[in-house]
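User: Fold both of these, please.

Assistant: Here is the first one.
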Amino acid sequence: MEPGSDDFLPPPECPVFEPSWAEFRDPLGYIAKIRPIAEKSGICKIRPPADWQPPFAVEVDNFRFTPRIQRLNELEAQTRVKLNYLDQIAKFWEIQGSSLKIPNVERRILDLYSLSKCNTRPFDNEEKDKEYKPHSIPLRQSVQPSKFNSYGRRAKRLQPDPEPTEEDIEKNPELKKLQIYGAGPKMMGLGLMAKDKTLRKKDKEGPECPPTVVVKEESGGDVKVESTSPKTFLESKEEMSHSPEPCTKMTMRLRRNHSNAQFIESYVCRMCSRGDEDDKLLLCDGCDDNYHIFCLLPPLPEIPKGVWRCPKCVMAECKRPPEAFGFEQATREYTLQSFGEMADSFKADYFNMPVHMVPTELVEKEFWRLVNSIEEDVTVEYGADIHSKEFGSGFPVSDSKRHLTPEEEEYATSGWNLNVMPVLEQSVLCHINADISGMKVPWLYVGMVFSAFCWHIEDHWSYSINYLHWGEPKTWYGVPSLAAEHLEEVMKKLTPELFDSQPDLLHQLVTLMNPNTLMSHGVPVVRTNQCAGEFVITFPRAYHSGFNQGYNFAEAVNFCTADWLPAGRQCIEHYRRLRRYCVFSHEELICKMAACPEKLDLNLAAAVHKEMFIMVQEERRLRKALLEKGITEAEREAFELLPDDERQCIKCKTTCFLSALACYDCPDGLVCLSHINDLCKCSSSRQYLRYRYTLDELPAMLHKLKVRAESFDTWANKVRVALEVEDGRKRSLEELRALESEARERRFPNSELLQQLKNCLSEAEACVSRALGLVSGQEAGPHRVAGLQMTLAELRAFLDQMNNLPCAMHQIGDVKGILEQVEAYQAEAREALASLPSSPGLLQSLLERGQLLGVEVPEAQQLQRQVEQARWLDEVKRTLAPSARRGTLAVMRGLLVAGASVAPSPAVDKARAELQELLTIAERWEEKAHLCLEARQKHPPATLEAIIHEAENIPVHLPNIQALKEALAKARAWIADVDEIQNGDHYPCLDDLEGLVAVGRDLPVGLEELRQLELQVLTAHSWREKASKTFLKRNSCYTLLEVLCPCADAGSDSTKRSRWMEKELGLYKSDTELLGLSAQDLRDPGSVIVAFKEGEQKEKEGILQLRRTNSAKPSPLASSTTASSATSVCVCGQVPAGVGALQCDLCQDWFHGRCVSVPRLLSSPRPSPTSSPLLAWWEWDTKFLCPLCMRSRRPRLETILALLVALQRLPVRLPEGEALQCLTERAISWQGRARQALASEDVTALLGRLAELRQRLQAEPRPEEPPTYPSAPASDPLREGSGKDMPKVQGLLENGDSVTSPEKVAPGEGSDLELLSSLLPQLTGPVLELPEATRAPLEELMLEGDLLEVTLDENHSIWQLLQAGQPPDMERIRTLLELEKAERHGSRARGRALERRRRRKVDRGGEGDDPAREELEPKRVRSSGPEAEEAQEEEELEEETGGEGPPQPLPTTGSPSTQENQNGLEPALGATSGPSAPFSTLTPRLHVPCPQQPPQQQL
């Protein structure tokens, strides 16, 4: 294939080997085995066994490295030659101030190097183009040399310039003839650049300078352009700054600016040696020589502008030899993670697909295309030759740095570990003490896509092995050693320019050549893709190269075997011719191995002997030549103790060991004996020999090697005679063991003869052991280990085997005796079997005697079958006997299985049939019982009893039948428990019924009573849920029983508050502890009533104590309030302070108004005939109970009585029901006492005065009150929404909720609160004088009424009376007004947000909410805030309890006694006026036992 072709043809694949585990255990032995095949290709690939997977031992976090930079198109030899050629051309023009522009032909850059190599005929036509004009060379030479680096210069060369216009082509015939429109030097010379065309029109004003290209030196080794000297540059810079000419970059340094005539005359032209016409005399900026412009070739028409150099300086600069090419280090340090991210990102971006999806063939073709391209400059980075000593090997290493796991220890000692392989016993490098990096110590390689390793062979032509730990594949190319010189010749032939400047170029690992190019010149090349977990081995002097397919991590090292020694010697001679330094001394290595021959492997000893013999002969020849020269002085030198640089030949750089020539007068140098004429010019008498061994010592070392190598033959003869018994005498085991021990001590190779000896020894020892076991087995008798018996045929074969072995064993006689005993027993057993039926005792005794022999006799097996048959029949008879214990199904199946292995007979067949029939029947009944236990539809007890009765007749133990019996017994006991609890003295407790239901559901029996109990439990749960909805607030932290029972621990503020917080957090869930009752006590109604009464008294005492404690606390409204242990704490956990704090009227504790639900001052501020006047402040709702005191919704007494009526219909007792009865009794008792107090003469008079005052206030006109208008009733929300009929004051609904739509309520929301605020200065009080004798009983009644979780009208009346008897609480009123304002502001914001969302839905065209429908929604849906939530709860309560509404305020208009009789003071339970009369119908339920009812009525 011609270089430069687009298609790359992959070379053939190299051999791939897959060793077995046995082969894999000996690495160097396996490599020696495959060497005849693999060596022909130069490289090979080895796939280890699948489960050989060494762990990756590199510390990833601490691994940091700096990679090398590789520019792909500079790696390939031919491409580098082209680039160097273009650099020289570019340098030539840049020195003269012009940049090289290469034309493009058919969209590809013109290959000027190939064009220069074409053999074109000289242009001999005399006719010239009459219109031809000389190139404007003076203009190009007038620019200062630039300082771009070579890579920048190459990049600039490839940038396209503007193409010439048609006008330019028509005006210039030269361009018209060329018809090449790419920008190049000729275009520049013709001055046809579009960008310069306009500049030339301004020549009259001043010439414009062409653009400048800067060339600077770079360490990459490319051709560089030297800049002018600092002096010249400074002078040019100074002249530029003072020049009056309009050139913007630089101007020529012209001598016409000098006015000194003597200075001008000192310049003489170098061509004509004249100094006249100094105005046309040019001064070179490089060497300061002078030239006339007309003396130059070609002559210049005028003085050029800018820096100019003479032809001599131009030629000297262009002929400067290039520096050696090499890789530069990157400036960035990477970790494995950062390098991998960079590598994967580069590959994914380059191929525009995920990295794992890029085919290897595509990467390979693209790599060689980029390498051969002079246009595309792709740069990659390669972390190569990283020292594992410093950064850590990828394999586990046994050292003291860290502890290895057993798995890591196994791989750390494996021969395939690259840290171990160079120092294996068969390896030559183990005899070198120094750790040679790269040879004995592995190097690490971190690659990315396109990163490459160039053509090279290993140091000293050694083997190399490379292991890819992980990552994407690595592509290899290899050339066998036979073609190594051919490859070198081809590369030198194709790129002589590179080898002229670097003769040892192939040793620098910086040069590639396309494998197709090498193959086209006859070089055999193979390839392979090395995947993760695979080895690649290169053989001695096998050239190899390759590149990485992507991000990966590899490790490599060298090793040398015995077959390498000749190649190593040839390599030293090759290095001597190239004058290349050695890594180690080959002679020293040979002599070191020869000094200790007993430590050498036998094959290695033979190879060292051969090499040592050649080396001694050569040393004798060289020393003889030294004597012939007349050098007789000599001294011994321990060369191995000298550094390598002190014993290197100054001529060929070889490291000397056996001998060297030195001079007394020139002590700094020495030469090897091959270059004795190159040491110095001193006399031979001053020169002397420095030697390591004398010529007498070397043969002695050689002899020891020979003895070591030939000792194997002597030993082999002895072994051969012993194994073949050539002398007729069998050797003993001790003699054979001695031969095997000799081979091990002398380290003989693992030959076939040694393997035969080992096999013979192993076989003989196995026979002895087996014979001893046979004898000892007879002695052990019945106690010998099972499985050691041999058959009679095996015993005879064993005796023959012992006789055929080539060694004598005295155990043969014992084996013969055992064989005679066995044959006698066999005859006796045959006679007993022939006389069947024999007695079982005779057969058993014969069987026992046979077992003592230790040998299996065929007749013994027949005896065993007869004995087993009799035993099985006897066991079946015992199992089926009527008096025996019933066996299980497993026992029956076991008998059947055992019967299948018994020898067949009529008795056995009959017994098996009976067993099978019985087992089938038992399994069928067991299956029936299983279905009854597992079926979803449960069967009644009668059905189960029938099944159990029928299964009793089967003589087998059936587990499912037994389980069915137990279930039936439990069902009968359950029915008895139900009858007992239903016929007791009291109604059953709910807990007892729930327990019975849970037990009954688990029974696999159909129970009629279970459905009745389930219905009773469901009814009780329904009543409890209804009561919970009646009493409990939404998301209440209290249970129903806690709310119904008095709070016995109310006296402790901390206990009460902490328990409330525990309830909020879900930590406190006890019900029965409140009354001090256990679960058993709750079953006794008398205990519940007594505990409830005691709890009432404790609650009252506790609240009084709490009020005294809280009253002593400082008020948060006082300015001097400070936080202390005695301060109040709100439910939020913070101390309430300043404006916005409220005091509970019951416990006297303080809270944040925003943290609790607060009352509204007025249900409606608009006066009406039935409503209170605004100035009747004592009727304002300012009463505040904290959430710790008001634990429930406090329903009206009528609602509670409805629940009690439903409770009486329940045939179940609940603790909550009894607590509700106690609470009702307590409420009615209090109501009677309250009515009695309100009906007294003093209180009736006070109520009358209060009513008169109310009427007077209602009759007085209010000038500040806005006019009233007739409005729609509160129940019509549609009319409420109309704005024109709404009065200004109407901002609240009847129940105090604010409407949702802000537009509908906005006119009145602010006015009503402002109206209330304006009335505050007019409030006066007290309006009544309450004597202490009247106030005290009312306050005590008020206290007890607030403790009740029931709403009573009498409570409200007493509150208004007490309020009127004291001044108005202005601070609380202001606080409530502020809180109400804040709440309404939040309601308006929420309403606006809802309106915006509704409008957005309408605008989007979706199904928006109907405005009329929204207005018709219940107020509880459209309201917000705590009051709205309470209103919603009240409406839900009405639905649950049959429509009872929330409590109404007690009217005070008219006569007090009349109003009380008509509204609030009318008894709640009918016409009976006594406080205890209505409750008399409830008490029998708590004490009278439940009447007996038929079962069908209980449902």
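And the second sequence with its predicted structure:
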Amino acid sequence: MSSKVIPWYKRQKYGSQVKSDLAYQHSTKRVISQQTQRKSTCKSATQVQAQATEAMAEPAYTIPVFRQRTTEVTEETEEYQRVSTKVEKGLAAIQEELQRMKIATKAQVDSLAMEKEVKEMMYKKVDLDEIPRLPDFMVALRPHTVWEKTPVKLFCTVLGNPRPIVKWYKGGVPVDPLSAPGKYKIENKYGVHSLIISRCVVSDTAEYSAVASNAYGTATSTAAVTVRRAAGAGWSSQIGLVPHLTDIHPTKLEVTLVDCFPVTFGVEGESASLLCSMVVVPDLPNLPPVVQWYRDDKPLKPSHLAEMSVGGGVARLVLPHLAKDDEGLYTVRIYSKDGTAEHCAYLFVSDATAPVAGAPGAPMSVKAYDINSDYVLVAWKPPNTVNEAAITGYFVDRCEVGSDTWVQCNDAPVKVCKYPVHGLKVGHCYHFRVRAVNSAGISRPSRKSEKVTALDPAENERLQVIKREGKYDIVIRNDDLEGVPSAPGQVVATRNTKSSVFVQWDAPKHTQGLMGYYIDGRIVGTKEWFPCNHKPFKHNRFVVHGLTPGESYVFRVQAVNVFGLSDESQESSPIEVESALATPSTPYGICMLSCDGSSMTVAWKSPKRCGGSKINAYYVDKRDADTLIWKEVNLSAILDRVCTVDNLTEGTFYEFKVQAANVAGVGVPSAPSLPMKCEAWNMEQPGPAYDLTFSEVRSHSLVLVWKAPVYTGASAVSGYFVDMAKKGSSEFVTLNQDAITQRYLQVTDLEEGESYVFRVRAVNAHGIGKPSMVTEAVCARPPPGTKEIVAGVDEETGDIFLSLEASDISTTSEFVWSKNYKAIGECPRIAITTKGRNSKLSFINPDKDDLGRYSVVVTDTDGVSASHTLTEDALNTMLELSHAIRNPIVPLKHGLNYEVLEKGHVRFWAQAVKISPSVSYRFVVNDKEVTSGEGHKMSHDVATGVIQMIVDNFTRASEGTYTVQIHDGKAKAQSSLVLVGDVFLAALKEAEFQRREYVRKQGAHFSEYLSFTVTEDCTVMLACKLANMKKETTFHWYKEDEEIVPETPPNVMSGACALPIPLFSRKDQGVYKAVIGDERGKDTSTFDISGQVFDDIINAIAKIAGESASDLVIQCTPEGIRLQCYMNYYTEEMKTVWKHKESKIASSEKMRIGGTAEMAWMQICDPSDKEKGLYTIEIYDGVKTHSRTFDLSGQAYTDAYEEYLRLKAAAFAEKNRGRVMGGLPDVVTIMEQKSLSLTCTVWGEPTPEVTWFKNEQEVASNEHTKITFDGGKFASLVINQVTPEDSGKYSINVRNKYGGEFVEITVSVYRHGEQIPEAKLGQPKMATPSVTTGLPKSPAPSSKTPTPSKSQTPALSMKSPTPASTAKSPTPAPKSPTPAPKSPTPAPKSPTPAPKSPTPALKSPTPAPQSPTPTPKSPGFKSPTPLAKSPTPSPKSPTPTPAPKSPTPSPARSIKSPTPPRFMKSPTPPRK
């Protein structure tokens, strides 16, 4: 991009010009001229300038001016005549020739008089040219005192022969303008030397001196500069102290554009900022320069859509809400002392993402015309449609100012780009917007229009709208009847820059009403078009920006009017994006390499821009430093950048300038070099190195390369020192302590983003020579898109190569490869190929001689370069890979292997890393090739690389060696598998098993064989799963070949069967078997519960039991203290350990260990104090130990011990008390006149007393009723010849000092001939067939005592020792009076005890509840802890209960002693 400065004297001319193309980025000139004389011949300003045309491209394209070399000699007077014709034009021409500075002069009024004086002296100087003269200041420096932030100019004039060289110093330090760009400016015009300091600061206060020197001496002029700061912080007060500054007009400022905005790309809805940085002299905050912004040559005004600001050396335009209306060519113009400085660049605004995929872009440029009180005509421009469907119409919306509500104005889409909106309110203000519609949907709304007020103008001004049937419609004139425009004509695309193309086209036949054009582009080889602009462009030429360098594009154009878009034009011819041809830019860096007194050898650096064509020539001019006449050095082209200039005068100062040429012509000459004295070099040290260049610039490193000095001194160059300094600093640091022999150095440890300068000093045996010219500053930052060299091996040829893909390239770029930074020429060991952006260096038969550092530089780019060090290890690795590629094999992931499939088939397979669809292979078995067919199936899968062969019938004959041979293109592979011996037998066994399995699964079978699980209630479940079941399928369980019939029949259709084994223990060991079968066959599953399986089941039970175990509790018994632990289930097979004080307890007479299904217990028999302590039960489940503890000590032990003593005493009393051992019935039925004998066995220690009662009255012994008690063991009551009066309730009371027992017998006497009562359950059978009437037993309360786990002594059945034959007595016993009981038992509630029957009592079918607590015992029990065999437990009181008057007899009741032992309630919970 470029900027230009228009001088004031040319402003009128430029102001009248009209730009012909608004898409250009920059305004510049194309100069067209012809040069027929020597290029050194001076020409007038009118001959130098050619016709100028406006252009849009970045760099100006200058039609080449081919120079013709002649031998004519031009008189010196021509130069003076040209200078004297017009000072203003002469100054402009000299400024363009000398360093191409600004066109306008910046000298002030007082310098004009000085220039006039110098000019007169120069005329006189002609006569004195031959007289040597020391430098002499004709006008010396003058001191200055200035205010802060104002400029100061120091100037002087000096004479001398030869012309002196002037250098400026500040406080003895040389002034370097490059150290602070824009700060210092050094000029030399007509012998007037000046130093301009811009924007002085206090630190600029110093003593400045100008030192003039030539071959005959030196002169110095010194002056002081004082910079003062005004009192106060406000600039107003400072300005007030400088009265002459108040008259400065903004247009009197000096403005130089430094960095300007480029071509910018934005998106709708986003923001964009255009910036221009500048240097303003003087820079006054309250007096900024005048800046004007334009879009498409129309001035912009500050608004909420365009925010403008100037200050701090920056002019800024911010577009906060982009719309396609903002697209266009933006220009910034700054009015300054020297004219108008301006810059322009295009802003592209693309469509935002559509709300619906495929919807068109938003319309633009919505404006209101023909404004009236009742309607407004709204017009707009259509959007570009490239890949979207055609637009079918538009919707127009309105919104009142101050409201956010938009109202749609038209019900149906309007097809033209204007619409009359009616129904408006008079005096109200409105905004309008438009939305486009196509088949995919509706677009985003356009930017709203400016505010429009509905007012009523004259009726005759309504030009475009008429009223029809109460509604407004658009007037269509004859000129508008043509509809959409015709397609544009031929489209031509030409080269512009490396990222843009210049497109021109012919306008359509009819251009009336044309809004503009849309340009579309497409990459050659693709079908997708893209829009180049998003707003109709009015001219028929446009620059398309943002293209990819090196790509080829075609373009098409569409015209736009109010009716829409025309047809597409024909496509342009393909064009590759590359820069247009131009002459090269100026060479630079001219330096002297050697001098012998009559000739000088000079060198220079290549131009930074070659102009799109390779530089093919250089031309050098020279002149004496004290003259203005340039003379050509060479008539023929110089190809190298080193030139030896002969025929020079020793002791004279010379200046040189160089021009570069290409096919486009000769470029602009370089700035004159510094004056160089022609003086023979006789020093012994070497001259300066030259042509210092940078490559491989990265964030923290770079490589510096240079050429050897031309002048070597008295001996050969032995090495080099490299010095570095930061930009703006004169303090150089030597980077290498010892001299290096190579002519390159990699500089490391740089600061990213910092700029550095370098110089090189050569060394020989006599010392260090002159330093080279200091390089231009280089920034430690890699070029955008930098890539490194890639080392690899070609996959097809196997060649080892180094490759670089350039991030930037031009048509003239070349890839220059070097080894150890020496260019590689024609070499039979290396081949270099370049294609597009890629360059490849291939090695031919590489070996150790090829090791080293390889670098490549891409010419005519912004420093694209890279390097790679080829090491021995890397080369060996690539050689191995190269050998593998040139001698290819098919790499295998897996060699040949086998796999047995479900039907007993065997699959032989191998897997390659990669195979192609054209792969071929074969299998060889025992040296015989196998073909795919019956019994063998071969296949492969390209995606996975698997090659396989399936053998259907794998038998003993299949033993042997299997081999697969693979061919894939040139690559081969082979893999073998030896299948013999045990390996083969294992494979055969597996194949036969799979074959049987397949047959088995054809019928009902087990999909999962038997396994066990344990439920939460510790029930072991043997489970299996079934498959392929039918209703007819049967299922059977077996244990040790004996069938098990479960309570719930198995349901085979459910697919699962289970056999529960509750209360699992060792008795459940054995082999279980499940068998299913039907007509298709049967299947069997066995499960052996023994050994480890049994242990696993026990462990599983122990896990559940351990987790459910309760805390230990105490249960006292007559034998001792018992600790109990309740759990879901307990069996002695569980690994249960009892511990006392961490010592394991073994079961013994003292410590008894046992348990029930509900609990585990440990009983301490006859406890003593040494049994106190902590007791623990541990249940181990194979993985985890579950522990419960109880501390049996202290009060817990005392209470338990007391309870134990009490229970022990109670048990002893229970054991020795008086009791009836058996023999008495409960009910006796007898016929009158028969004898009744009630006999029983009694026991007690000491011998008990026996007393008989009738109806609670003691019976005395007499002839009718005889009572006997023999041997303290047998007690009897005999009633002779019973009568009905003998009926009643008889009882016997057996008692000693420990207690006794009271037993009742009900006696019924019936008469002869009466019906004998029927016997009932629980009644004794009749002893005789005589009919008796029995009294039923009275109901008794049920026992609530919990059942004990086990009875220590088995209970005996309740049987009568006396046979029922005693009932044969024909004589009924007489009635006896009821005796009073002798025991202290309270009187019975019933007056008549029930008579007893001689019939023995029946055993109860219902088991008695068990309890560890001793209970009263009925007759016939020998255990001290009896079990009640009767379904109705005995009452707790010896008081007899009166029998109800029921014909059903009740069994005899055993009534305990009136002083029974105290009972303790058992803590045992009921079983779950």
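The chain is about 10% helix and 40% strand.
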